[in-house]
Amino acid sequence: MYVVESFARHVVDWRGRALDPNVCHHAKRAVVDWYAALLAGAASAPATLLEQAFAAELGQGPSRLALGQRTGPRLAALINGTAAHTAEVDDIYREAIYHPGAPVIAAALAVAQAEGADGAALLRAVIAGYEVSTRIGAAMGRAHYRYWHSTGTIGCFGAAAAAAELLRLDAARFAHALATVATFAAGLQQAFRMDSMSKPLHAGRAAEAGVTAAYAARHGVTGSLDVLEGEAGFGKAMGAGPDWTQALSTLGSEFHITRMTFKNHACCGHTFAAIDGALALKAELGISAPEIEEIQVDTYGPALEVAGCEAPVTPAQARFSLKYVVATALMHGSVRLVAFQPDRLQDEATRALMQKIRLAVDPELDAAFPRQRAARVSFRLRDGRVASRLQPTRKGDPDAPLTDEDLDQKFLELAGAVLDVEASRALLQSLWRLESMATLDALVPCRRA
Predict the structure, then answer these.
(1) pLDDT tens, 177-223?
(2) Domains in the chain, start-ordered, CATH in brackets?
(3) pLDDT, tens digit (0-9, with 9 covering 90-100), for 32-57
(4) Whole-number Å distance between alpha carbons of 24 and 21
(5) What is the DSSP letter of 220?
(6) What pTM does this model have?
(7) Rg of the chain over CA atoms, in angstroms?
């Protein structure tokens, strides 16, 4: 049996089983977090520019954009998936170096609305999309991440699986949806090594590709079933010969959606350990930022490769500048959306503190990536004292999780940028009771603040 057939067979067999309450709760956490990210990015570029580009397709259709506009499921997946990855506050599956929520839930919601599905069906599709894609992502691993943006490439599989589950495809058609979407997979790391809007588009395009592949398979379009493990397939062309047996080994007994990282800062996740370590060390010493003479941050290699922007000018560059976000955290106490407003980007004190930061790769911490995201932060103070702290994980990781209350606060903060308080709270309440909702009508339309 080919790998895509094994995944398809598992999801179809699982379809008839009751949802485990714990897994269901974690799926709702993922959806709450996704909506927070969606609303944070929905009213800004590139989502707003996509709306302009495809204006002729808005105003009719069964699916909805974040703020209620009607459209077809493919365009809804594209724009909502893009919006959910724009503000850099969407979830992470650590071992796959991958943001599942943006592509998977965008595709699932678009198809669920188009098919008139209920809340339980939406949650089941989200779980299926997370399980299939995180396993493929973890198998592809660091070798894949060297050049490819996993949210764009791996996200295609999650989106296709979620859409296929909502369409209730049989195992054969489900497998063909996965096989077809494999050849759509794209998203280059180079696309966000300089200022551009390409990175969030990777998530949107993955969501759209998954919807396309699933609907195509529903009507008989076939794919190459050996596309993952074949001699010229996804695994060899875009990775280093992954172990597909390992990827399939715990299907059904272990649910990756229960081990998600939910972001506590509005920037690249590779910077989080350094931010958390710097804030903790500052608190331990009881000092203010001006007392720091020099900062040394040692971490894993991809953190510097992806978030190494030395002199950020735009918000996008600043989100991928480890020096900027650490300096901002030390100066202002947090790295929220306000950190990327023009006045903060131009803050002279923050810029001065950035000049005191030195970055390096620690071989031991690098060897532990991606299963561990750690940083060692050291300060040399003006009074001559030297102090150091190893930050072994990030707040929001599975071993230091955000609580449901933390997620509520994050949601209300981010939703407040585009919705009024009443609408934000009503939407949040609906999301937490999603499994009991007969329709998804309560999720849209949303009212602008």
Answers:
(1) 999 999 999 999 999 988 899 999 999 999 999 999 999 999 999 99
(2) 3-262+403-443 (1.10.4100.10), 269-391 (3.30.1330.120)
(3) 999 999 999 999 999 999 999 999 99
(4) 5
(5) T
(6) 0.95
(7) 21
